Amino acid sequence: MNFIDSSAFLYAFLTAQKELSHEVEEMKAHAQAIIRRIQEGENVTTSTVHISETTNILERRFPLSRARYVASQIIQSPNIEILPVDRLHYEAALAASERHDLGLNDALAYTLIKEKRIDAIYSFDKDFDKLPGIRRLTK
């Protein structure tokens, strides 16, 4: 099972506000393919924090009813395991953030990945490339 980062959800669901570069169009297509595979039965895991990060951005870009619909598709998917996050996870994430020069949510994903012995993450965030023990998947 792979972890799915908020960047994969966002590339899949956000609509362009301007013309996209070829590279970004390709990332959108890959993210949408990832989501299709999940809808077709591939199991992934994410966290409450990454769902919150995704929905906060969707709510800024979409009418609330559409953002809520997309969020419900993520939350209600039987193929997406949603991990809870507590203070201990954040404390470990703070240490990982300092150790690897990461943002807190990326460090939190890394902490959960290591805890759950997951070896890959669906993400379009290149910061994950510098982390030992995990592979970043974009397809």
Description:
This protein is of the alpha/beta class and 139 residues long. The protein has one domain (2-84, 118-137). It is built from six helices and five strands, in the order βααβααβααββ. The chain has helices at residues 6-13, 22-39, 48-61, 64-75, 87-100, 104-115, and strands at residues 2-4, 44-47, 80-83, 120-122, 135-137. The protein has a five-stranded parallel sheet, with helices on both faces. Helix 1 packs across helix 2 (22-39), helix 3 (48-61) runs antiparallel to helix 4 (64-75) and helix 5 (87-100) packs across helix 6 (104-115).
Descriptive key words:
five-stranded parallel β-sheet; 5 strands; alpha/beta; 6 helices; 139 residues; 56% helix; single chain
Topology (elements, then pairings):
Elements: E1 2-4, H1 6-13, H2 22-39, E2 44-47, H3 48-61, H4 64-75, E3 80-83, H5 87-100, H6 104-115, E4 120-122, E5 135-137
Parallel strand pairs: 1-2, 1-4, 2-3, 4-5
Helix pairs in contact: 1-2, 1-3, 3-4, 5-6
Number of self-contained structural domains: 1
Mean pLDDT: 95
The spatial strand order of the largest sheet comes to 3-2-1-4-5
Q: How many strands?
A: 5
Which shape, going by the Cα principal axes? globular
Total helical elements: 6
Largest sheet: 5 strands, parallel
Rg over alpha carbons:
15 Å
Helix content: 55-70%
- Category from helices, strands and their pairing: alpha/beta
Distance between the termini: 14 Å
Oligomer class? single chain
Order of helices and strands: EHHEHHEHHEE
Q: What percentage of amino acids are in beta strands?
A: 5-15%
Residue ranges: pLDDT <50 for 5 or more in a row? Answer: none
